[in-house]
Amino acid sequence: MKFKNIIQNLGANLLITLFGLVGSIILARWLGPSQRGVFAAIILIPTSVQYFINFGLSSTTIYFVAQPDSDKNTIWSNLIVISLVQSILGIIIGYFVINAYLQNYEAEIINLGHLYLLTVPFGLFSMYATYFLQGASYFKVTNLLKCIVPIGYCIGIIWLKFQQHLTIDNLVYVQLIIQFSYLIIALFLLYKILLIRFAFKIEYNFIHQMLSYSVKIWFGDISQLANSRIDQFLIGGILSSKDLGIYTVAVSVAKFTSVFADAVRTIMLPAVTSKNSFQEKVAETLNFYKKYWIFSIFFHLIFVFSLPILIPFVFGNAYSEAIIICQILVIGSFFINAKTVLSGGILGMGFPEIMSYVEVIGMIISLIFSMLMINFYGLIGVGLAIAFSYICQFVGLAFLMNKKGITYKNLLYTSRNEVNKNLNWLKNAIQYFK
């Protein structure tokens, strides 16, 4: 297991998450639950559209770039063409969806939603550039790039507050400036590091190969998008903007638990992809996963018991309702984060369809149970539905991996020797920070 890279990515993810959390805390305190909910409603559709039209090309980019002797000029040329088409479609789709979703809001709010659609082309090109560098294992650079938006956004919020201009429309303008800056820096580093002698080369057969791989991921990505947005769509449409603001805080805190899982997956996908045989890929996947599993148990337990003190202290008593919702989501996150780590191995083995099946399962469960529970139990009901969906996704993934020859025993059982070995790894991680 590439310990140094894991630690570096963990540090970057911690930094990203902390700045994102600080930004969320500041907005929650300075805007209040209702206005926080309005801002969440504005950005919900554009961010969802960007994810929807991505067509699974984020992981596909890493997969093809990480392969030995990959033609990087051809890959990037194809991505440019695809991104242009995606951007046009995204803006058109987003425009009409925003009109429908925000129809009960003021015209100014709807216009801000339309304006925020500019983040779709900015986000697509900068995202592909970042994942291109990640596929080539330039992790320090990608860590730097991923820090730009959360750090810039946090600084922008603080600047607006001290200038006495912290309004929803100014928040949208700040996001646009930051996203455009991210795009420029990402493209500059990509061409400086990898595409020094870039020559535009379109190969339609290769586009077909990329899309054939990505479509298997895309169905999973769409389902994952639904899993991560169904709750907020329903709350924004059925309950009040205050409820959406409270739930948004619960989600942002629970998301903190994904920091380590995302760091492991970042290193894991190109590491597994680069292995030659299936047996080597499986061994590398289990090596990553079992080390993560030991750490994850302790981390989630400590986190869930700290929330009754953490949320009121950090966000204020106005968000006390978010405590129980966040605890429920963190319990579910224990399973969804394990699924995130395993997905790096599954995609690296060349089985993207497995993740699609799992995400579809989660989407169906999220949709059905969220719609049933929201009317009876409100925000708590939605939290329970989402957590149950997370658990089902992990169970479904374990079942499908067993079908591919990665048995339940290898996946879930750890011998005493393995436990001791992984605990030693955890001790080394702690000493590394000292």
Description:
With 434 residues, the chain is mainly α. The chain has one domain. The chain has 15 helices and no strands. Helix 5 runs parallel beside helix 7, helix 9 packs across helix 12 and helix 10 runs antiparallel to helix 11.
Largest sheet: none
What is the number of domains? 1
What number is the mean pLDDT?
A: 83
Hey, roughly how much beta strand do the residues contain? under 5%
- Rounded to an integer in angstroms, the radius of gyration calculated over CA atoms is 21 Å
What is the terminal-to-terminal distance? 20 Å
Number of strands: 0
What is the structural class?
mainly alpha
Element-by-element helix/strand order: HHHHHHHHHHHHHHH
Shape: globular
Helix content: over 70%
Count every helix, treating DSSP H or I runs of 4 or more residues as helices. Answer: 15
| pLDDT < 50 runs, ≥5 residues | 429-434
